[in-house]
Amino acid sequence: MQLEMKVKRAVLKEGAKRYQRGSKREKSLILKEFVSLTGYNRCYPSWLLRHCGRKVIVSGKDGKQVVFIGE
After folding, report:
1. pTM of the predicted protein model
2. Do residues 24 and 32 make contact, with C-beta atoms less than 8 angstroms apart?
3. What pairs with residue 57 in β-bridges?
4. 2 contacts: CB under 8 Å, gap ≥ 6
5. Alpha-carbon distance 65 to 57, whole Å?
6. How far is it, in rounded angstroms, from Cα 32 to Cα 71?
């Protein structure tokens, strides 16, 4: 079952708060939970959880673009 994007963003915001403050064991459990809910590969959710709420500069064909993760 695929979740809607709004639900994925809500899960990301809540999980990121716990993930950024958690110990290594807690982070592993949060990551497993997030992967099972969203169906993403393990690498992408770990990046999302680490960078949620932060400004990330992504360069594209047009040049640099600023992206806010989790908003």
Report:
1. 0.77
2. no
3. 66
4. 39
5. 6
6. 22
Picking from 20, 14, 54, 52, the residue whose alpha carbon sits closest to that of residue 34 is 14
**DSSP strand E in the chain: where?**
55-60, 63-68
Tens digits of residue pLDDT in 9-65 = 899 999 999 999 999 999 999 999 999 988 899 999 999 999 988 887 777 777 777
Number of H helices, E strands in the chain: 3, 2
- SS3 state of residue 26: helix
- Going from N- to C-terminal start, the domains of the chain cover 5-68
